Amino acid sequence: MKKTLFFVLYFVVIVVVMLAGVIVSDHVFAVDGPPPKVSREELPSIRADPGGCTPEVHEVLQDAVDEKCKILRRCKHDQSCDALLSNLRKNLDCAKAREILNSTCFDGGDNAHKQALGDARQSAWRCIDIRVKKRCGLCPHSDLDDQKTDVGENP
User: Fold this and answer.
1) Alpha carbon distance, N-terminus to C-terminus of the chain
2) CA 62, chain centre distance (Å)
3) Which of 66, 85, 92, 151 is paired with 139 by a 20 to 30 Å CA distance?
4) What confidence category does residue 110 fall into, taking pLDDT thresholds of 50, 70 and 90?
């Protein structure tokens, strides 16, 4: 009987402690509320060293990199040929934006920026490779022939 009473009290204490934790955490959340949402424009601008460019030129080129590269552009085997072509274009645009920033402001870029450019080029090659394996064709639309982006050698 003593063992049963001990386990029941032990169980009750554990439940009370757990409920107290939930009540306390809910209370804190309810009082403070969720953290405020802040738009990108409201965040302080923390930009990297502009290199050989003026801060204004660097900002324009970095914004172009952000716009072209901070998007979904990965090619996957389950994508349609059109989606693969769209992502190929996105990767080429990203590589071009990075290449312009690196060459204009950073004399080609440091190792991290060269790696980021290489990653964008590698992603473009991945799109090409998947398109070929799916028999989509390499560039069914002539507008890709006009792009001057150097994708680099196929690794």
Assistant:
1) 75
2) 15
3) 66
4) confident
**Rounded Cα–Cα distance for residues 141 and 155 (Å):** 24
3-state helix, strand, coil in the chain (%, to 5): 65, 0, 35
pLDDT digits (tens, 9 = 90+) for 7-18: 555 555 565 545
Q: Determine the pLDDT at residue 32.
A: 54
The residue whose two tokens read 């209370």 is: 27
* Tokens standing for residue 152: 């680099």
Please tell me whether residue 23 adopts helix, strand or coil conformation: helix
Tell me if the pTM is above 0.85.
Answer: no
Torsion-angle region of 94 (φ positive above 0: left; ψ -120 to 50: alpha; else: beta): alpha
Compute the average pLDDT of residues 119-140.
88
